[in-house]
Amino acid sequence: MAYFILSMYKSLTLLIFLFSQLMAVANPPGKWITAESGKYKYQFVEQDLLKTRFYTLGNGLKVILSVNKKGPRIQGDVKKLTMVELFGY
User: Are 56 and 69 in contact (CB under 8 A)?
Assistant: First the structure.
């Protein structure tokens, strides 16, 4: 009985692994495209269902915009830089 359970576990693990590899090949990541809207340039991923736009402002700040019809939401992330990253020490 224990051998049967172990055998089924191995078979299921192999099946899940093969399925995940097949999905990765069937749905390759989209291609990045650069476009312009007015005076702003942005990037987006081809065939993105959310139609997300990635803007880089003149000061290096990255802004990511996507439509959300459920309601407005703002999220901000701040990265703390080290002295090495700032000044190269």
Answer: no
Query: Is-contact 76 86, C-beta < 8 A?
Result: no
Asked if 74 contacts 66 with a C-beta cutoff of 8 angstroms, the reply is no
User: Quick one: which of 74, 78, 56 has its CA closest to 66?
Assistant: 74
At which residue do the structure tokens 């899940």 appear? 16
pLDDT less than 70: residues of the chain: 1-6, 22-28, 86, 89
DSSP at 49: T
Query: What predicted TM-score, i.e. pTM, was given to this entire model?
Result: 0.53
φ/ψ of 59, rounded to 5, equals -90, 5
* CA-to-CA separations, 39 to 32, 47, 55, 57, 58, in angstroms, rounded: 20, 24, 12, 11, 12
Output the CA angle 48-52-57, nearest 5 degrees.
140
Please give the single-letter amino acid code of residue 37.
Answer: S
